[in-house]
Amino acid sequence: MLENLPAQAPDKIIELIGLFKADTRTDKIDLGVGVYKDASGKTPVMRSVKAAERKLLSEQDSKSYVGLMGDLDFCDAMRGLVLGDAVPAGNVVSAQTPGGTGAIRQLYQMIQMGNPDATLWMSDPTWPNHPAIAKSMGIAMETYPYLHPQTLNVDFDAMQATLSKAKPGDVILLHGCCHNPTGANLTLDQWKTLTDTISANKLLPLIDIAYQGFGDGLDEDAAGVRHMAAHVDEMLIAASCSKNFGVYRDRVGVMMAVSTSEAGRALAKGAMAAVNRLNYSFPPDHGAKVVQLVLANDSLRQDWLDELEDMRTGMLGLRTSLADELRRETNSDRFDFIADHRGMFSRLGLTPEQVLRLRDEFGIYMVGDSRINVAGLRQEIIGRLAKAIATVAG
After folding, report:
1. Is 127 a catalytic residue?
2. Which residue out of 134, 210, 239, 386 is catalytically annotated?
3. Is 63 among the catalytic positions?
4. Is 210 a catalytic residue?
5. Per the CB 3.0–4.6 Å rule, which of 97, 180, 227, 392 could disulfide with 357?
6. Does residue 351 form part of some domain?
7. Is-contact 209 241, C-beta < 8 A?
8. How far apart (Å, rounded) are the C-alpha atoms in residues 284 and 139?
C-alpha cells in the first residue's frame, strides 16, 4: 500500500529553510520563516511565559485529560482578549485547539457539517494553509481580490465587487489584522462597510486572527473584528497564541462561534466537542494553561503587555528604516508601503526571478512571492538589504 501513496509537493517554506541551512555564506539573511526574532536574531521565550511556567510547575498536581473543549478558563480569557465587551460573553462558544491551524481545520469541518454547499471565499493572496486545508477536505473555494498590484495596498473596491457575487450561506475568510502574506490591513471604515455587505447578503464571516498585538496594539488590532461581531448574527473565529505569546511549539489556539441564537450556540458547542473528539480528543494543556495564567495574573499580564509592545514597536521601527533606505536607494516612493503595513510580513511586489537573484547573488532568502518576515530583519543589515533589492528591482 505504501508504495501507492502519491508523492507530495514539498512545502515551500520548509524547502526554503533547507536551502538557507545549506548555504555556507556567513552574511546570508533569512526573511522567509514566519517566526518573530529579536535584535539578536533569536526567537525568545517571553519573560511572562517563563514566570507562568515556573508557577505551573510548582502548582500543577495532575496530568489528567482536560475536557473535549479544553481549558475553559483559557477559552474565556481568549474570548476577552479577542472580543473584549463587543458581544455578551454568553453569546460566544469556545473550544481550545492545537494552534490557530487546528482552529481553522476544526471550523472548516463544522462548516461542512452545517452547510456542505457553502463556498469558502478567501483573499488573493492568503496564508497558503488556508486553501491547502480546504482542498484536502473537498471544500468549494473562490478567491476575492485583495492586494492592488500597483499600490500594494488593499484593493477594497475590487474586493467588495467580487464578494457581492457570494451566495447566502457562503463563508468569507478574513484576516483579523496583520494580513499574511501582505501586511496590508483593512481600515476600520472598511470593516464597517464589509460588515454591512456580509449582513445584507447573509454571509458567514470566518476570522483568522493570528497576530493580535503585532500591528497597532491589542485593542486596535481587534477593532474591526469586534465591530463585525457586534453587528452580525453569526461569526466564526480562529485565534492563535503562537506569535503574541511566543509559544509556537506549544500549539495554543482557540476556535469560537459567536451567535445571537441560543439554539445555534448549543449546537455549535456540541459540534466543537464532536470534531475535537474525532480529530485529537483532548487538546494539549501546557501552553494553554501558561497563557491563561499570564492573562489572569495582573503582574504577569502587565509584563506580557510591556514585552509585546516592545516587539510591536520594534517591528514598526524596522519597517520605517527599510522603507527609508529603499527610498534612498531607488530614489522613488515605490516601497513606501512597507512603513504603512503592519505585522510580521510585507509583500515587496518583486517577481520570482528577482527573488531568485536575491537568493543566488546576495544570500537573501524570502518566499517566492516576495513576502518578507519583517521580524527577521536587524538594523545592521537593512542597508545591505535595501541595496540588493534596489539592484534586482532595477
Report:
1. yes
2. 210
3. no
4. yes
5. 392
6. yes
7. no
8. 27
